């Protein structure tokens, strides 16, 4: 039953190897995981992450196609339409997969040079319930000589002036004109319902505020897979060669949806390190007992190291006075 001094210490060393306690990663490297984990800033919007990327500070493999931002101007831009219209990114709410955009061409005019509807790419985005349309009519024939409250005028590149009308759900049709057939173009621009309902037609600032605030969109960029990936400790991304979602993991591997077999092992706390040191001293004292019958068995060593510190008792103290102990140590 008695253990040799050597095997006693050997078992202790095996159990207490750093990898068993510290779980050090073998090769630290800058991988997709490290790169994609870093949030980035675009214009005034901070802490952006998947599915957004800009192709510069954050590579395309950290985002999802269709979510590239243009961060070169003070107002961050994104294309959410089926054509090339520009939209300003106004705010992002990652927890609800929602963000708000405003049309860049309506930022400081009601009369953009090219008239186009808001044509959202519904494969990636959808309107939020809180959106409401502002409808704008252009190049209209005046229906009466008296100008209406919801009337505005536009001057084109040839200096020709034409009349337009603006209509929203809340404008009283008895006080405002709804010109249907007399206008050559009709455009709708969504805005947040709260802002639309606050539009005072005689106060242009309230209309511009509604256009600047923009409207809400919800995104669909493999949201479910990304949630599973992050839940397993990974970071979401996109494999450009397979055109599929990818989950980058702290083990420097990538997976289809989640980090396989990876469980987040925490680094030891100071208290844990001190406890390990105390155990080592205690077990060492038991191991170097000169009387072999006082030495613990291998299974007892394992038990002592894996058990609670409080359950360890001090060995008999006569060991240091024993004459033969130093020569025995040297024999190791
Ligand atoms: C670390 O990254 C570099 C470039 O990204 C790569 O060439 C190298 O093989 C990587 N090393 C390891 C150990 O992964
Ligand atoms: C605005 O109007 C267009 C055309 O009628 C419609 O397709 C779109 O869903 C409307 N947008 C909102 C937010 O109601
Ligand atoms: C606009 O102005 C040009 C000349 O500047 C004229 O030829 C044209 O007919 C005008 N268009 C309309 C719709 O009034
Ligand atoms: C339009 O009017 C402005 C000033 O009223 C003038 O400077 C400009 O040359 C005009 N443009 C055209 C195309 O007539
Ligand atoms: C914009 O959409 C509305 C509703 O679908 C349509 O009636 C209108 O013709 C469109 N306008 C343009 C310029 O395409
Ligand atoms: C709308 O704006 C005008 C001018 O700014 C102001 O006199 C009026 O009281 C406002 N109406 C409402 C309902 O706030
Ligand atoms: C993307 O997919 C290809 C083909 O399956 C694979 O070889 C490559 O390693 C993947 N990229 C990443 C970053 O995992």
From TrEMBL:
Q: What is its main location?
A: membrane
The question of whether Transmembrane is a record keyword is answered with: no
Q: What name goes with this protein? A: non-specific serine/threonine protein kinase
Would you indicate the residue range of the signal peptide? Answer: 1-27
PANTHER family named among the record's database cross-references: OS01G0690200 PROTEIN, WALL-ASSOCIATED RECEPTOR KINASE CARBOXY-TERMINAL PROTEIN
Q: Where in the cell is it found?
A: Membrane
How would you describe this protein's topology in the membrane? Single-pass membrane protein
Q: Which GO terms describe its molecular function?
A: polysaccharide binding; protein serine/threonine kinase activity
Q: Which InterPro entries match?
A: WAK_assoc_C (IPR032872), WAK_GUB (IPR025287)
Upper lineage ranks? Eukaryota, Viridiplantae, Streptophyta, Embryophyta, Tracheophyta
Which residue intervals define the domain Wall-associated receptor kinase galacturonan-binding in the entry? 36-102
Quote the EC number. 2.7.11.1
Keywords, comma-separated and alphabetical = Glycoprotein, Signal
- Report the GO terms under cellular component: membrane
Q: Which reaction does it catalyse?
A: L-threonyl-[protein] + ATP = O-phospho-L-threonyl-[protein] + ADP + H(+); L-seryl-[protein] + ATP = O-phospho-L-seryl-[protein] + ADP + H(+)
Q: Which domain of life is it from?
A: Eukaryota
Q: Which ranges carry the Wall-associated receptor kinase C-terminal domain?
A: 154-251
């Amino acid at each position: 039953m008695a253990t040799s001094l050597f095997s006693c210490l050997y078992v202790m060393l095996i159990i207490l190897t750093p990898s068993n306690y510290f779980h050090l990663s073998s090769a630290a490297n800058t991988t997709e995981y490290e790169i994609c984990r870093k949030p980035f800033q675009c214009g005034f919007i901070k802490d952006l992450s998947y599915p957004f990327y800009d192709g510069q500070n954050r590579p395309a493999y950290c985002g999802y196609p269709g979510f590239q931002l243009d961060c070169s101007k003070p107002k961050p831009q994104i294309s959410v339409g089926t054509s090339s219209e520009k939209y300003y990114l106004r705010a992002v709410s990652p927890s609800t997969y929602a963000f708000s955009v405003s049309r860049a061409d309506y930022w400081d005019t009601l009369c953009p040079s090219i008239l186009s509807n808001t044509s959202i790419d519904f494969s990636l985005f959808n309107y939020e319930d809180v959106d409401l349309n502002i409808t704008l009519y252009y190049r209209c024939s005046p229906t009466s000589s008296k100008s209406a409250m919801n009337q505005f005028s536009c001057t084109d590149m040839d200096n020709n002036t034409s009349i337009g009308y603006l209509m929203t759900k809340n404008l009283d049709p008895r006080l405002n004109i709804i010109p249907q057939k007399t206008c050559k173009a009709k455009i709708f621009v969504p805005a947040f319902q709260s802002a639309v309902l606050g539009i005072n037609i005689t106060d242009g600032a309230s209309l511009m505020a509604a256009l600047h605030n923009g409207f809400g969109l919800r995104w669909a960029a493999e949201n479910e897979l990304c949630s599973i990936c992050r839940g397993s400790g990974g970071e979401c991304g996109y494999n450009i060669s397979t055109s599929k979602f990818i989950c980058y993991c702290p083990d420097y591997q990538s997976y289809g949806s989640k980090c396989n077999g990876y469980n987040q092992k925490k680094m030891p706390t100071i208290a844990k390190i001190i406890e390990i040191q105390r155990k080592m001293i205690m077990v060492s004292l038991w191991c170097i007992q000169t009387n072999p019958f006082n030495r613990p068995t291998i299974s007892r060593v394992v038990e002592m190291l894996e058990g609670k510190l409080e359950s360890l008792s001090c060995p008999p103290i006569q060991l240091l006075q024993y004459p033969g102990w130093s020569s025995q140590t040297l024999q190791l």
